[in-house]
Amino acid sequence: MTIHFKITRKLLDATRQDLDRRHAFAAERVGFISCKVGALVDAGIVILAHAYHPVEDDDYLNDPTVGAMMGPGAIRKAMQRAYNENVSVFHVHMHDHFGAPWFSHVDLREANKFIPDFWNVRPEMPHGALVLSMDSLAGLCWLPATRQAEKISKISVVGAPLLIFGDH
Fold first, then answer.
1. What is the total count of domains within the chain?
2. Is residue 141 left, alpha or beta, with left meaning phi > 0 and alpha meaning psi from -120 to 50?
3. Structure pTM?
């Protein structure tokens, strides 16, 4: 199945800028991107990113064993947004390097714990996680039909310059 994630250059740049801010104790910032979802002709889906929501400073837990640990308030707020706005939710964070990023073992372990929770409020929607680098991005999408994470097969950054990652 094709999973095509689309984001505007403006939204991606704003997300990177926010994730690059310092936090009082967390080593990195995290946030959520709300998305709309559509069907593709070939039985795939297109996920259209439309808004970035940073995790508020008070919603981080002081856990030095990880780069950033969200408290329950951060998840609750993202779930409430998914419910109220009828959107799909993608967790996002950034690795400080150039080139193709991928999730660390800790990233994957934690995402597998909390991403499925979004089906409690939007069971019909795919939800997921994105990891950004300074010049690229990659992601995973948990599909409601299989309840399994799949690699996002194509990512388009719409704007100047147009960028496409994944299957071409």
1. 1
2. beta
3. 0.94
With a cut of 50, which residues of the chain have pLDDT below it? 168
Q: State the Cα–Cα distance between residues 130 and 41, nearest whole angstrom.
A: 24
- Which residues are paired to 151 by β-bridges? 140
pLDDT digits (tens, 9 = 90+) for 78-115: 999 999 999 999 999 999 999 999 999 999 999 999 99
Please, what is the end-to-end C-alpha distance for the chain in angstroms? 14
| Cα separation values, 28 from 56, 94, 167, Å | 13, 8, 30
Residue by residue, DSSP assigns 58-94 as: GGEE--TTSS-EE-HHHHHHHHHHHHHHT-EEEEEEE
Q: Residue 148 sits in which domain range?
A: 3-166
Q: Is 4 helix (H, G, I), strand (E, B) or coil?
A: strand
Q: What angle do CA 37, 43, 44 make, to 5 degrees?
A: 45
Query: How many Å apart are CA 50 and CA 43, to the nearest integer?
Result: 22
CATH code where residue 59 lies:
3.40.140
